[in-house]
Model the fold of this input.
Amino acid sequence: MQELLTGLWQESGFMYVTWQMLVMWVVVGVLFYLAVKKEFEPLLLVPIAFGALLANLPSRGLVNRPAAEVISPATGTVLYSFYTAGDDVALEGGVRMHRPEFVSDGISPEALDKVLSMKGLLYIVRPAALAEGTVVQGYEANFGEEKLQLQTRDYFVWADAKGLVCDQNVSAPGSPVYKGEELLRMHSDTEGGLFDFFYKGISHEIFPPLIFLGVGALTDFGPLIANPITLLLGGAAQFGVFFTFFGALFLGFNSHQAASIGIIGGADGPTSIFLSNKLAPELLAPIAVAAYSYMALVPVIQPPIMRALTTLNERKIRMKKLRDVSKLEKLVFAVVVCILCILVVPDASALIAMLMLGNFLRECGVTERLVKAAQNEIINIVTIFLGASVGITMTADRFLKAETLGILLMGVIAFSFSTAAGILMAKFFNLFLKNKINPLIGSAGVSAVPMAARVSQVEGQKADPRNFLLMHAMGPNVAGVIGTAVAAGFFIATLGH
Done:
């Protein structure tokens, strides 16, 4: 009997519960409270919180590591490869790319030790040749008895899923490779797991663009078209993104992580997830939680900033009624913005294209069934899977770190500066405009549609109960969606290649 009970205990999950898991249960409880009791962005916080709960339970069949492929991060040449077919791999995570952090006198020992400890799994890829005369820092590293001659631009690539190396596509150093090409394949004896497959919607960049499809189908760009100057207010709100980017660099985050943290200032959850997955997947969970939390806290964070930066008379400014925008104007706007944004920042194509597709479906008037699907079934289903997939990454070892608190703090700083920049830009315009802009609508330049516009309306009516700012605020609000997607594309274009 004792043996039976012992066996049952060992087969259960109780003995695998850690104090870190218990702490995360408390975090999950806070998220549930904010979502259910306070109704802060419940459509996303509930799935995220439930996914986080599952991530911190000793489950089976939910997050088994799948087979993995090592993908070349750049077009260039395989400089070194260290692996043997049949090697057993038992590391944590997914497929990763790593370019070590450097100090003034070369590579940091910690970063190099971390990478070179993965003998049998490691590829080093050097990007294609630079223009003649370009100076690149070089250094020497020891790998066992072999001395490696490396450059600071080299990529370190490895597989980190449980299983066996069973195939190779690049046979030897010196082989030319192209970005996205498979370098090595692994087989896993625990392939699959429910959330491994759900998470592909994030890792393969499917969920965020589908959310943008629904946002486009729900959004009326008429106020922006009727008052084009509000596009600049949406652009001004991106100041918080770039301010926080440089702030994160100053605090020691690398450029990829800093960009992913900075984009929180746009108050756009799908874009934050899209960018983080590309540049800093290790920070995806805290960045996603911060982005959606601050979207939910718009009515709490923005009003004090709005009142501090405006006078009572400014808050009472009444704006002229917007002109009616024709169906043709809206259709042309969707097509033209799609073309221009993709030409300027091709890396934002997936987000911009789906946003404008959804909007074109809405405005053309002949695809009612598709519009309803995008506005309801598609966006609702994707929201469930997106939230749960983000939550499942919130394991205790990833989330209970000092840098997580730093990200949450920098997120609110980014959001606050974005709010302030939009207001100050509107005040600047009023120095030259005959028809004044109510500065309160500048705060709606963040991407939290339509919540930020509603906050502008509420604050305006506190100053003047007969002042109606909602439609005026929708202009910078939808401009902020476009602006944040463009900012993300800029970061990917400059940092991600």
